[in-house]
Amino acid sequence: MHIATATTTRRWWRDAVIYQVYVRSFLDSTGDGVGDLAGVRAGLPYLKKLGVDGIWLSPFYPSPHHDHGYDVADYCDVDPLFGDLREFDLLVADAHRLGVKVVIDIVPNHCSSQHRWFHAALADRPGGPARSRFHFADGRGPEGELPPNNWRAMFGGPAWSRVTEPDGTPGQWYLHLFTPDQPDLNWRDPAVGGEFTDVLRFWLDRGVDGFRIDVAAGLFKHPELPDSPDPEADERARDSVNPLAWNQPEVHQVWRDWRAVCDEYAARDGVDRLLVGEVSVPTAREHAEYVRADELHQAFFFDLLSAEWDVDAFRKAISEALTDIAGTGSTVTWVLNNHDQVRTVTRYAGESTTVGPDRARAAALLMLALPGAAYVYQGEELGLPEVVDLPDEVLTDPIFRRTGSRSRIRDGCRVPLPWSGHASPFGFTAADSTARPWLPQPEWFAEHATERALADTRSFWHLYRDGLQLRRNLPQLGEGDLRWLETPPQVLAFVRGDGLVCAVNFGLDPVPAPVAGTPLLASRDCPPGVLPGSTAAWWISDLPIHSANSPKGNTP
């Protein structure tokens, strides 16, 4: 067995750029219109050429797919829709031969209503051991006809559903903070934690390099399940806002236990196994609590993703992250998009669609310049806009199914990728297949097809590739301090400890560049001494880094 050195592999995650693969929309190898693990294997050379360090796979487990795999029916297998365990093993082996890490999604807050545990709970009696693995409770009202509390589900509607008992009578209620198809697990029952330790070991033994943890601020609820003063907060925000349901202090012990398991495997061969959490909490300071030295290695920092295209908003988010999160000894994990969000080209467009691509390119360079790690959602490297006009009859998002509202639905960023050609399926599935892609691709996807992006040196793809190559050549990707530079009001600029200067012009008008000379890389044509509007650029400079007002980055 190859024993890796600590300096090269124990800390690989600190500055890694991970590419999020939404499996069902990446590449279809079977011609059924749905992407699969063999399709991911086929796409690995493309991702290696792009220059990412690893991939994060969306859930591929057996599931009824009421929430596209985030309703897991079996945590230790592969849904036949995506392949089988042998195909998964081949994917891991191929990725490792190319030097690409493999991170898989794990969903510990809830499971599918088709999971064997939930079937057992329905068959059990009130108060029985099978029900204790979930949140079953008696209803309120004379006949128990009212939910146990007033909480609402994030995806719409009440957070409780009533079951029919085995004898046919109306019975208890169970909690589901997303949909009724996704009952929340009760982590106060030791059996739940024991089961997930076994799940971790199952996949670690198959060679995975880490886990992306869904709803990592979840798991525990207030033990008394009281009414909320704002029961519609989660439903209104489409986020984990209810303080009685999320971010309970007990959850931190789970991450200490999981970290111990990962550290055990790391001790065997000197290669860290990554835990990266989807942590949605109100402040950077609370976020930092999840990445303390004995908990998660990383947690997605969503403040850039949620920020408007505004220089002050970006500066505030970056400063708070570098002060609070990096102070724990972790590195900040930057993200601009994922499978739940409107694509950046569309999100940054504002009232004018013409500026969206320029702003998205600039934001990408900014993210790649920041100390720490970064995650890139598939299709962002192609400059894909959101598909906003999908007809109602093809929408699959449970938010739409439960509310009838198209507001903040997620199908538009999940349309299968275009690879080649001028008409659907754009190489996503075999041209001679009679199956259509599971979500329809618009005609204008042809402008963003991978083969066209690779051939055009001015494309989004080449910008990402060039940025990733330069990143690798810089000595302090995950570490080091940065100092803000004096700039015009609409410009954000900083210098890092390795001499990299990054500047972003959030305005529309050109301004003087903070560094003389031609930049190493720019998101748009950037003449020497000028920084055009909606543009980011990198230079190497001997500007001093140290300043009393410098936000602190990480230290080795």
Please tell me about this protein's structure.
InterPro entries: GH, GH13_cat_dom, O16G_dom_2. Keywords: Hydrolase. It holds the Pfam family Alpha-amylase. This is Glycoside hydrolase family 13 protein. By secondary structure, the chain is an alpha/beta fold. It is 26% helix and 13% strand. It is built from 15 helices and 18 strands. It has helices at residues 6-10, 37-50, 85-97, 116-123, 190-205, 233-237, 251-269, 284-288, 303-306, 311-325, 344-347, 356-369, 398-403, 450-455, 460-472; strands spanning 17-21, 54-57, 101-106, 136-137, 160-164, 170-175, 210-213, 274-277, 298-301, 333-335, 373-377, 482-484, 491-496, 500-505, 511-512, 521-522, 530-531, 535-540. β2, α3 (85-97) and β3 (101-106) form a beta-alpha-beta unit.
User: Can you give the mean pLDDT?
Assistant: 93
> Over all CA atoms, what is the radius of gyration?
24 Å
Described by the principal axes of the CA atoms, the overall outline is globular
The proportion of residues forming helix, as a percent range, comes to: 25-40%
Strand content: 5-15%
Multimerization state: single chain
| Distance from first to last alpha carbon | 28 Å
Low-confidence segments, given as residue ranges, are: 1-8, 547-556
Per DSSP, the total helix count is 15
Strand order in the sheet with the most strands: 1-2-3-7-8-9-10-11
Number of strands: 18
Largest sheet: 8 strands, parallel, barrel
Structure classification: alpha/beta
Write the topology of this structure.
Layout lengths: L5 H5 L6 E5 L15 H14 L3 E4 L27 H13 L3 E6 L9 H8 L12 E2 L22 E5 L5 E6 L14 H16 L4 E4 L19 H5 L13 H19 L4 E4 L6 H5 L9 E4 L1 H4 L4 H15 L7 E3 L8 H4 L8 H14 L3 E5 L20 H6 L46 H6 L4 H13 L9 E3 L6 E6 L3 E6 L5 E2 L8 E2 L7 E2 L3 E6 L16
Parallel strand pairs: 1-2, 1-11, 2-3, 3-7, 7-8, 8-9, 9-10, 10-11
Antiparallel strand pairs: 4-6, 5-6, 12-13, 13-14, 14-18, 15-17, 16-18
